[in-house]
Amino acid sequence: MRVMDNIDHFNLRSFDLNLMVAFDAMMQELSVTKSAEKLRIGQSAMSHNLSTLRVLLQDDLFVRVGQKMQPTAKARALAGPVRTALSQAQNALQATDRFDPATAERVFRLGVTGEMEMILLPVLLRHLQIHAPGTKLLSRTITTDSVDPMINNGEIDLAIGCKSPLQSGYFGEVLFKSEVACCFNPHLLDLGRPLSREDYLASRHAVLSQTGNVAGCVGDALQGLGINLNVVMAAPDFMPLLAAARNAPIIATVPCRIATQYAPLFGLSFCHMPIEVGFPPVTMNWAVWTDKDVGLVWLRDQIRTVIASIAPEDHLLAAE
């Protein structure tokens, strides 16, 4: 990213970093007392910072509404850019020019979808234990609604899963295309393989859903084709779907990589979904300001290596 060369250093002298930190704390807590505690300063010092900010920005910034402080329109507009600037400053101060995986001690924070929790994390952990034994993984579950705020707020270093189109301020790449498989208990459902379209539509289904919609992402995708699926169960994770298919005469539709690794553990047969549906690819995304972090550059390379080692979708064809 190109650094701006028209910075007005003279005017910025009166707006030091501490004021930006105070503003960010106030936006998070919406309380002078709690903000002071968070910054480990006195309440009077926090009040002085707020007064200085109001003078410099010529705005009240925070006003009392009932028992709470609420940010003004200008404060809300400033919140995102200020947090981004603070994150960039923090990364710049913490950054090093080298990363030695053999000796590094670092916590990598990954935001992952349910598929990546089951497919990527176990293999990635084994890989890191061999090549970077001093590192740790902190996994956070992401959804399409939560992923952008979690990246912006610095809660996660990388997001791995299905993400909405990239916005300004993000980098990203496609890791692999998404394909799904149908899993069922052959002792409870007498279905041919490959599964016919007629049998698929005549069956009852269990699907993934992270919203209040029982149809889930599979049902939604099929509704776009004018097909209504008979969904009898929706769950936010894949394991309940496979467990349900083991115990009931239903079809659980899950990603192919989930099916190849986990369906046999539940005694399930699996095959390709007989209706072609275009699902979003699995992507890896990160914030622009972490792009040059040498540790994260190394980690992204390791994730690419691990993903390449995981059985591809074509492996499913051999099992049919």
SSE layout:
Elements: H1 9-12, H2 17-29, H3 32-39, H4 43-57, E1 62-65, E2 68-71, H5 73-94, E3 106-112, H6 114-131, E4 135-141, H7 147-152, E5 158-161, E6 170-176, E7 180-184, H8 197-202, E8 205-208, H9 216-223, E9 231-235, H10 238-247, E10 251-255, H11 256-262, E11 269-272, E12 282-287, H12 294-309, H13 314-319
Parallel strand pairs: 3-4, 3-5, 8-9, 8-10
Antiparallel strand pairs: 1-2, 5-12, 6-12, 7-10, 7-11
What does this structure look like?
There is one protein chain. Helix 2 (17-29) crosses helix 3 (32-39), helix 2 packs across helix 5 and helix 3 packs across helix 4 (43-57). The relative contact order is 0.13. It contains 13 helices and 12 strands. The protein is 43% helix and 19% strand. Residues 1-5 and 314-320 have low confidence and may be disordered. The radius of gyration is 25 Å and the shape is elongated. The protein is of the alpha/beta class and 320 residues long. The strands form 3 sheets. A 5-stranded mixed β-sheet has the order 4-3-5-12-6. Strands 9-8-10-7-11 form a 5-stranded mixed β-sheet, sandwiched between helices. It has 3 domains: 17-94, Winged helix-like DNA-binding domain superfamily/Winged helix DNA-binding domain (Arc Repressor Mutant, subunit A); 107-176 and 282-310, Periplasmic binding protein-like II (D-Maltodextrin-Binding Protein, domain 2, 3-Layer(aba) Sandwich); 180-272, D-Maltodextrin-Binding Protein, domain 2 (3-Layer(aba) Sandwich), CATH 3.40.190. The chain has helices spanning 9-12, 17-29, 32-39, 43-57, 73-94, 114-131, 147-152, 197-202, 216-223, 238-247, 256-262, 294-309, 314-319, and strands at 62-65, 68-71, 106-112, 135-141, 158-161, 170-176, 180-184, 205-208, 231-235, 251-255, 269-272, 282-287.
